[in-house]
Amino acid sequence: MKKSKGISTEKLFRLFVYVALISLAISILIPVGWVFLASIKENAEFYGSPWAMPNGFHFQNFIEAFNEAKMGEYLLNSVIVTVLALVILLAVALPAAYVLSRFTFRGSKFLNSFVKAGLFINMSYIAVPIFLMLLDWDTALRVIMGDGVFLNNRFMLALVYASTALPFTIFLLSSYFETLPADFEEAASIDGAGYFRTMFSVMLPMAMPSIVIVVLFNFLLFWNEYILALTLMPGENQTLPVGLLNLMAAERAAVNYGPMYAGMVIVMLPTLILYIIVQKRLTQGMTVGGLKG
Amino acid sequence: MKLKKIVWMFALVLLVVGLAACSGDKEEGDNNDAAGDKDKGKQTTLKVAALESAYGADMWNKIAESYEAANENVKIELTLKKNLEEVIRPNMQAGEYPDAVLLATGRPEALTETLIKENGLEDISDVFEGKVYGEDINVKDKMLSGFTNTLATNPYADGKTYLAPMFYSPTGLFYNAGLLEEKGWEVPKTWDEMWELGEKAQAEGISLFTYPTTGYFDTFIGSMLYAAGGTDFFNSAMTYEDGIWESKEATKVFETVEKLKDYTEKNTVANANPNDFTKNQRLILDNKALFMPNGTWVAGEMAEAPRAENFEWAMMPMPAFEEGGDRYAFTFFEQMWIPAAAKNKDAAKEFISYMYSDEAAKIFLEAGAIQPVNGIIDQLEGQNKTFYSVYESEGALPAMGTFASTKPVPGVNMGDTLYGSIDSVMSGKISYKEWQANVEAASDKLRDAMN
Amino acid sequence: MSKSKSRNIFILVSVAPAIILFLLFMVIPTIEVFRMSLYQWGGFSNTQQFVGLDNFRTLWNDMNFIRSFQNSILLIVVVALITVVFAVFFAAILTKENVRGANFFRVIFYIPNILSVVVIAGIFSAIYDPSNGLLNSVFGMLSLENLQQMWLGNQEIVIYSIAGALIWQAIGYYMVMYMSSMASIPASYYEAASLEGASKLKQFTSITLPLIWNNIRTTLTFFIISTINLSFLLVKAMTNGGPDGSTEVFLSYMYAQAYGNSTYGYGMAIGVVVFTFSFVLAAIVTRITKRDVLEY
């Protein structure tokens, strides 16, 4: 009697679990899938029921998005800026996070809280001061060289992206490094490895799971960022979200919804594809973390 | 071990190459410019920035072509964007000013207002005293009267013109003439007739009123202020005269708007944002609402949207407050101006004078943009002709103007207070009395800051 | 070369680039924000006028600012609470329950987080549309007409509609964070607990929750920062602060003042208050949630 009752609560619980999981999955899949369907609808179809299936494959929307809004060019810019920013970020943040989490030295405590304070600095309110600063550099440079290079520069945008992501990244990596046992360093030290060698060959490989997470998070951050991109690239080399914003403004004014959703798909698709590839590494990273203990 | 080093080295090389590659574009561009200069001698490159509005970008390309043909010394470099502010604001802060800009006041980003407040515009009064480029007539003689003596062109009310009026359009209440005919409803002339019609329509499940966004109330309220108290009253309101918003004329305006609340389509407030405003405009097309404040561009803007049978756009001036009272149709226009920091001001002035030439007016006309020059109405056809002859056929009085410019006052924004609050009035969140008090309070704060 | 010298060099080389970039592109611009908050400047001209604390004094009496303050706090609290509950719940299910398709669900749940805010704004405009919207038409189909709402028009609920979009996009992100720390809890703990006959709920409250508590504390700080930022981006792309300012948040009001109203210094003063506020709030939250860190 008692046993069978236990089974039924267990069953109820499992039912509840699946209902919860499936509802959340639906609430995500349907709107996202809807955008994909909307992107191949003809303009007149948007005046009917939102649940109607598209009448056909109106691929014209994508052609319009690529031609009118130069989405292809923006795509390339986004790729360049994002990759550069990630490379800079890792090169700078990894050693810093390692040292800040595992070494005690004069000022290390101060630096740690300093970096933590940086978490509160929001891209959105320093965008304009950064712009004004680069502007001053450009003005100074014009006097010497006759031309400024700091604005409208994809590398500078990447550098600023990497810098603004530093506190978060160092914070995340540090908290991971902190959990690693000291045995490995001691072993390496006994083997006669120097500090640099210990870091590169022992500690960094162990941090791989969290590096994957850092890369994923920051990729999305950089790829989707638009306030800084808008501010620091007023002329050329605009990135994809800025392009989408232009496209949306244009198509909305023209009551032309198809290309607007096509533009949304163009922005979403690379992140979706990359995510599907990277998420496997993420799984590995997690299992490695799980086995560790 | 070695591998790691190679990876880091590789990353470093990538950075260096990246820096070079990324700034490469710019140098290339400069080289091209230099080459261009050599070829053409002393040519001025005039940078023109224009908002790409419902009229499309094509007309500007044509204007640039025809001006380059007319004036060999000038090469036009166009910046055409729907979100023009976001593109030129940072460039202007960087010291790269366009020479001439077509961007109206009253946009949410308020870039033009910022420049007015900062005294960043060039005085262009002499353009209107001088000749139209390529023609033997003075600009002011060619222009429709009344366009260059409002606060929208002379923001400091000092008799000097800083903004050139472009693309005018009468505004009023737009409706489906087909629907009213079909139902046998008379077009209302007074607010009392409006309310009557509202009751009749409500019985059939149609709302009397909708609005795209609260921004469209600028001309709506403007016309009502004129109707309530005439020109002097309007100007006092625009110059923040003490107590003006608490006068009985103003109260009449506030009350009327609040009364509209009961007749406004229920989805209106939800869609009254820059993303969804076309959904409110569709309420007219679908016969779900009768009237909305708008401008003549709406016909083109909604050209592709499906509509009820026998749909026919029509426009009427604002209803009068009493039988036989004055009815006004506010004239909306965009503005072209020259930044005080522009490099080629004289060339820009010439270019602006060209905007009023027959040639330019014709190019604009083809795209549906109407320049305020004499005889233009005779060239209009079809629907536009009925819209633009509202002043003759319907006996509407023209109304123009906007708020006087002030120095920036932190936390006080007349547009938000006077127009933005209408969403709250319509949803019943605030009463007209609170709204009125807020407007008067804002007016008090702005009065001292007038330039 | 002595050990301590090489150690110092190592520390310097590792930390210096990060510190330089951090100073240059974060600390200095922030100082600029503080400095400019003491000035009156329109944004273009060269006339910057020092006005001392005037901007802050005006702020104190600016009802619109106070409203944006209330909206932001509401969003932070609502979004953080609901997201943490959901994220921990789903993370626990997906790591500890033997759910079929766990991997599939995890992949799906994370999707909203990889979307650009611009795209999310587009999606939620389609969801919240009063007549043709996905949400209202679903309620219509289920004959639940009384649940239909003006999601973006009713000033009483529009801020919750924004919160809904923020929660929708945040659950997956925090779930993955909690999952990775749950996954590192040794399975032996749970084995031992179930041998002692501890129920699932008991296991959750006495093993899982304490061991990921530090992680949750950390994410609370993230919530404060990211909600302030994301609510601005979302509001800017979706409602533009409307209807009539009822979705105005910290940073959207800051931009409205710095640009729309040509009071750059005043906008920066708002920035200073937001910065200070988020800092203090996070400090308080960190303090009151402090527990002894459990090692394993």
Protein architecture, described:
The complex is a heterotrimer of chains A (293), B (451) and C (296). With 293 residues, chain A is mostly helical. Chain A has one domain: MetI-like (MetI-like fold, Orthogonal Bundle). Helices cover 79% and strands 0% of the residues of chain A. Chain A has helices at 2-38, 60-69, 71-102, 108-118, 123-145, 154-179, 183-190, 195-206, 208-224, 227-232, 240-253, 257-292. In chain A, helix 6 (154-179) runs antiparallel to helix 9 (208-224) and helix 7 runs antiparallel to helix 8 (195-206). By secondary structure, chain B is an alpha/beta fold. Chain B folds into two domains: 44-168 and 333-391, D-Maltodextrin-Binding Protein, domain 2 (3-Layer(aba) Sandwich); 171-331 and 399-447, D-Maltodextrin-Binding Protein, domain 2 (3-Layer(aba) Sandwich), CATH 3.40.190. In chain B, 46% of the residues lie in helices and 13% in strands. Chain B contains 20 helices and nine strands. Chain B has helices at residues 2-40, 58-70, 84-93, 111-117, 125-129, 139-142, 177-183, 191-203, 217-238, 248-260, 268-271, 277-285, 297-301, 345-354, 358-366, 382-388, 390-393, 414-420, 422-426, 432-447, and strands spanning 44-51, 74-81, 100-102, 164-176, 207-209, 289-295, 313-316, 328-337, 397-399. In chain B, strands 1, 2, 3, 4, 5, 6, 7, 8 and 9 form a nine-stranded mixed sheet that branches. In chain B, helix 2 packs antiparallel against helix 15 (358-366) and helix 10 (248-260) packs across helix 20 (432-447). The termini of chain B are far apart. With 296 residues, chain C is an all-alpha fold. Chain C has a single domain, classed as MetI-like (MetI-like fold), CATH 1.10.3720.10. Chain C has a two-stranded antiparallel ribbon with strand order 1-2. The longest helix of chain C is centred in the C-terminal third of the chain and has 39 residues, at 200-238. The two termini of chain C are 38 Å apart. The mean pLDDT of chain C is 87. The chains are: A mainly alpha (293), B alpha/beta (451), C mainly alpha (296). Chains A and C meet through helix 1, helix 3, helix 4, helix 5 and helix 6 of A and helix 1, helix 3, helix 4, helix 5 and helix 7 of C.
